[in-house]
Prior knowledge:
Helices cover about 10% and strands about 40% of the residues. With about 300 residues, the protein is mainly β. The chain has one domain (about 10-290). Strands 3, 4, 6, 7, 9, 10, 12, 15, 16 and 17 form a ten-stranded mixed beta sheet that branches. The longest helix is centred in the last third of the chain and has 13 residues, at about 205-215.
Amino acid sequence: MQTSSRPQPSKAKVISTHGQTRLVDCESISPIRFLHPYFTDQAVSLIMSSYGGGMVQGDQVEIEIDCTENAKLFLGTQSNSRVYKNDQDLTTTQQLRGKVGPGARTVFLPDPLVLHSGSRFHQQQSWTVAPDAGLLVGEWFQCGRSDSGECFAYQEYDSLIEISSEEALWIREAFSSTPNDYSPRQTGRFGDANLMLTLFAVGEAQALLTRALETLTAGQREYTQVPVLGEKELRPSPSDLRSLTHLEDRPVSIFRALGVTRADFDPIWQALQTQLASPNWLGIDAQLPMCRQMV
């Protein structure tokens, strides 16, 4: 695989002052740019956008996020994160490194990742979370341009998420998919589903996630790994496949869901918005972009 020198990272830093969060440092490096629309008085929003509407082969994206002590941050994307066709063996990569300071709150809920036919994409997220902090991270994957019938036509997708304290690694979640080698439609993987959502709740976000989703996961079986990857019995309908797991020895909870269309996830976003719209999190006027799209 051909690679170029490591790119300069896009950076953003938020601080808390007099009970309000302020963006004090922001630098965008192509092909990524940060947008900074008003969100609430308590929290800052950063929206990641891309020049040209997506990432092309050979793009290497580096992002550094610093949410300092007692600050509150919502991090999202302007639209679907698209990765375009690869015909020159130049893998597209994205690496995000984030810090959540003591007492801080960070929410990263992007729109779906959509891999176009022939694309190759590797991404990695590394988060360090301080005591008394809360982190909610979503990884939302769509099989391709499914509305036009393009499903699992990409070449390769690798994802790695690591979440830790300053002293120890709490979770290392790896996902890999090469449709030409192993069909994602096989039983025990995606089946009829087109989208997969994974939510990681860390520290103070664990209770929030439990409250938000308790009615959606009541009576449903807990899984110890991604249901679509393990040799587990699948439920009859992908839109009914939801699970919430709390790790016993680490302050991490994991929620997973499959769906056929984006509408299958609407109850999840509505439930999360209800909990996030509080003074202790994003502010009482907080509205998730996903919920605005439902109107």
